[in-house]
Design goal:
Length: about 260
């Protein structure tokens, strides 16, 4: 069974950036096969990784629904609707050089999120046996983890900014992780975008108050910001950049 690692945290703290760098790290260390999962409806893990995605699970679901509404015969003769849907959903797997990427995406209209969430669950469960690692980028909060969208989570990387209030938000998420009894073997806190990579004593105190395990501090790095602004994949920042060195140190220390 694959080892599943999920990134979580509040909005805009750097989950997708760190997730992309983790996928790249596993591939560089030849730890594959790796399945990267973008479970954020507002998907952008592919941009961080520098990969084109043609179809998301949400797009395919929309396609099938539209064809049904227009009474178009899209299902080849002799194929059941379920088999056709399954065949189409396999199209959502993008094969990059060193890993595969599955993007949940979204569908139009209200009440559709449960559907794509459910789709993601079945697709991840279907593929799990083929991979050594499944790395999941999540939207802000704990929605996917709390709904049990992932069959199993072994490692949770909680990401926070370096503010006191940011750490408090991460602390509440860590309490929820305990309450939800997700069964993760390792839950670690990463503080991202810290000026000079240092933490204020007040922030350290707050981390201790919530009993979180700090596994690393990542500095704010203008190169990451510049790459993002220029539309260059964040994972391609040089390996000797402060942010890459910091995340690699963190990943080296994980029990995988
Ligand atoms: N260490 C860093 N130094 C400088 N900029 C960073 C760093 N980490 C992330 N960023 C930038 O911060 C912004 C938000 O990062 P990212 O998209 O990874 O956050 P997120 O937590 O995934 O956001 P969301 O909740 O919207 O999914 C991006 O512009 C990214 O390039
Ligand atoms: Mg993100």
């Amino acid at each position: 069974m694959a080892h599943t690692i999920a990134l979580a945290g509040k909005g805009g703290v750097g989950k997708t950036t760190i997730c992309g760098m983790f996928i790249e790290y596993l591939c560089e260390k030849k730890q594959g096969p790796v399945l990267a999962v973008d479970a954020d409806a507002n998907s952008n893990l592919n941009e961080v990784l520098g990969v084109e995605v043609e179809e998301t699970l949400g797009d395919i679901r929309e396609d099938i629904a539209r064809a049904e509404m227009a009474s178009q015969q899209v299902i080849p003769a002799g194929m059941t609707k379920a088999d056709y849907a399954e065949m189409r959903f396999s199209d959502a797997l993008t094969e990059a050089d060193d890993y595969d990427l599955l993007v949940m995406g979204r569908t139009q209209g209200k009440g559709c999120y449960c559907f794509v969430n459910g789709l993601l669950t079945t697709q991840v469960a279907k593929y799990a046996k083929n991979y050594r690692y499944i790395v999941v980028d999540n939207e802000a909060g704990l929605e996917h983890l709390s709904r049990g969208v992932l069959p199993q989570v072994d490692t949770i990387l909680l990401v926070s900014d370096c503010s006191r209030r940011g750490v408090q938000a991460a602390g509440r998420l860590s309490e929820m992780i305990v309450d939800l009894k997700l069964g993760a073997k390792e839950v670690g806190l990463i503080i991202n975008r810290a000026p000079k990579g240092e933490l204020n004593p007040g922030v350290k105190e707050e981390i201790e108050k919530y009993g979180m395990r700090l596994i690393g501090v990542v500095p704010h790095d203008d190169t990451v910001y510049a790459y993002d602004a220029e539309g260059k994949p964040s994972v391609t920042v040089p390996n000797d950049s402060p942010v890459k060195q910091a995340v690699h140190r963190i990943f080296d220390g994980l029990t995988l």
